[in-house]
Amino acid sequence: MNPDNRGQEPTRPVYAPVPRRTALSVDFGNGVNGAFVRSNIDGTMTFLLPDVRSAAAPTRPTAPQNENHDEERAIHLFKLLYSCAAALDKGEKELVNKGLELICSLATDDGEPVHRLVASFADALALRLVQPWQGVCRALQLPTTTPAPEATAARRHFAVMCPFLRLAETAANYAIIDAVQTERNAVLHVVDLGGSDPGQWLLLLRFFANRPGASTHHQILRLTIVNEEDEFLSSTAALLALEAEQLHISFQFHPVRLHINQLLSIEPLDVRSGEALVIVSTLQLHRLLANEFAEAVTRPHDRKGKGQAHATMTRADALLRKLAELSPKLMVVTEQEASHNSVEFTDRFGNALKYYGALFDALEESVPARGSALERADVERCLLLPQIRDIIACDGAQRRERHERMVDWAARMEAAGFVPATMSPGTVAQTAILAHMLAGDSRAYRVCSQNDGRCIFIYRDDVPMFSVSTWRTV
């Protein structure tokens, strides 16, 4: 699926034979344009697309007449969607309403992947349109919050059906063992800032039990997990304690019953002197980019308190500075390799449509090998749709899904006092082998190491979807 694909060679638009019409052109950039045409007789509007003959069809399009209709309809849907977004950005609410009406007559949330993707983005555009009227939103219960059990199940299904995060977790675990295998501290303390799956820590327990020197050096593995759900914390604690007992390793579990947004200081993490500290953040830091504030900060390399200055930073930047002061042996950061933090709505919309289009394709191709169609639908409805709504419909402090690319995170990490830590060739190789095993002959998933092993990118076909980077303090 490619929103930028313009299909066949451009043809002249086909206009219905009605008396005088006035047109408002809508250009979204990247060659995507069209026009809403208003009749001077009855006031009705029709959306015209120069590149697709069927775009001049009436409000309720006729059935397909040729084998290329599916592709043409997909192009039509994307152009409608882009033009609705551009009209919304210009405040042309009546045009947005007409465009969404056309989209709803063409796309359904239970059809082909392109239809489901367009329906999800149309949902988000509609929500953005009514967002200023909070009374209307509350009366309609918009947006509805996904219940925690359903959201948890959707994340679990996504991890199985699209193994991006499984690859990220594998890379993180190998990097952790590599970073601390020569440490002789009595305690290895791993802090999970949230977002990781319990399966990652099951695997880490096994790695820890079989690490070099495990038989001669007794060491305690202490795991701190930040999560607001009591049920998740209690079930994870029981699962890991049983595994540790079977592996005959000393294990301690420290739950922090907070959401990452509520982690205002590092005290709840209970980091103790003499521990070998590792910090893991999986798809969490971007949630802290919404709020900016001014704070007196010390330059990262000046630990004596000299050279303080006032700076505007996000809560993510402030937390990273506090974590750097703990001098961890390693910090592993996994984030979406996407640019969804732009102030410009049209840029954010276009980037999000491409990114989530790749995810919808990946989910579709995972059925039935890795999951059922029902599980795929749950992931789209309970996991991806709320993210799309957040990116498209929300602004200001309400928008939490502020994904940034690796280059932006590198700048934030270095400003906080971290420097890149190189992953071992073995870590990269083991992760790449797993990607090859999961993709099979299709090579749909692959891992690419960049910057001399300081980060890896997890690809879906030729599109980088997630980044994993490793850091240490000076």
From TrEMBL:
Record lineage: Eukaryota, Viridiplantae, Streptophyta, Embryophyta, Tracheophyta
Pfam name, any one: GRAS
Short motif VHIID, span: 188-192
Motif position, LXXLL motif: 285-289
Family of the protein in this entry: Belongs to the GRAS family.
Keywords, sorted A to Z: Transcription, Transcription regulation
GO biological process: regulation of DNA-templated transcription
Origin species: Triticum aestivum (Wheat)
Transcription in keyword set: yes
Stretches for region SAW: 393-472
Cellular component GO terms, alphabetical: nucleus
Name the UniProt record assigns to this protein: Uncharacterized protein
Keyword Transcription: yes
Region (Leucine repeat II (LRII)): 235-267
Superkingdom, natural source: Eukaryota
